[in-house]
Amino acid sequence: MTTSAPIDLAHDDRSPARSPRRRPTVLLVHGHPFDRSMWAPQVTALTAAGYRVVTPDLRGYGDSEVAPGITTLDVFAEDLAALLDRLDIPQVVIGGLSMGGQIVMEFCRLFPERVGAIVLADTFPRAETPEGKVFRNGVADRLLAEGLGGYADEVIDKMVAPATIAAKPEVAAHVLRMMRSTSPEGAAAALRGRAERPDYCKLLTQLTCPAWVVVGEDDVYTPVSDAEYMHRQLSDSTLTVVAGAGHMPNLEYPDEFNAALLAFLETLPDA
């Protein structure tokens, strides 16, 4: 098992040059098997609009320490809380995509007082099925045996919509670079931990903070119906469906994604 002792996460902490308002800090959590570079378009747009943005590499990913074994979602969330402690940030708007969105939900469960608002992108709240547990552990075994090269080639047209691959090959190239450079041990540990995740459906009904739910129109992994379900469960939420996007609308259609994200953030009170 992976130890739950927090580790120092590699991260970027970008602040605007000047802002007339005390805007909330935004913490963005990447998905699997990516790294913090997936949020580059959002960091640029948010800092230009006056927001401080923190983007970490989760343990086992990017430049952060690799901890083989099993990394459950609570471990990821505790790492993030420890990072906020080190940066002296008491509360954030926390957003995540896919696995990152599930980490956001776990963070809300463990540290509700630190959450000012949430962003749930291309994710879903239900616990893993028995079949899903077998599948995730099987993929973990494969990644340890083969690395991520073959896996990345097989899933790229699910991570990114085929139309995006054709029209924006640089986006697909970025996603492939992230996947291929991910540590097999880190990715496998996350897959095994994610297979054991709890159900967050009831938690969503208990959250009172503002929420933005966003999904790619053509997302195969987390379809629009999953986003609509979360939107219904949350008491104060806005739903955006990004036309033409797959599982990574923030990279596929960054202008549309950023405009909706900034519109949501504008509804929040100053920090």
UniProtKB/TrEMBL annotation:
It holds the Pfam family Abhydrolase_6. It comes from the Bacteria. Residues 26-260 form the AB hydrolase-1 domain. Keywords: Hydrolase. The keyword Lyase does not apply. Residues 1-23 are annotated as: Disordered. GO terms for molecular function: hydrolase activity. InterPro entries: AB_hydrolase_1, AB_hydrolase_fold, AB_hydrolase_sf, Epox_hydrolase-like. This is Alpha/beta fold hydrolase.
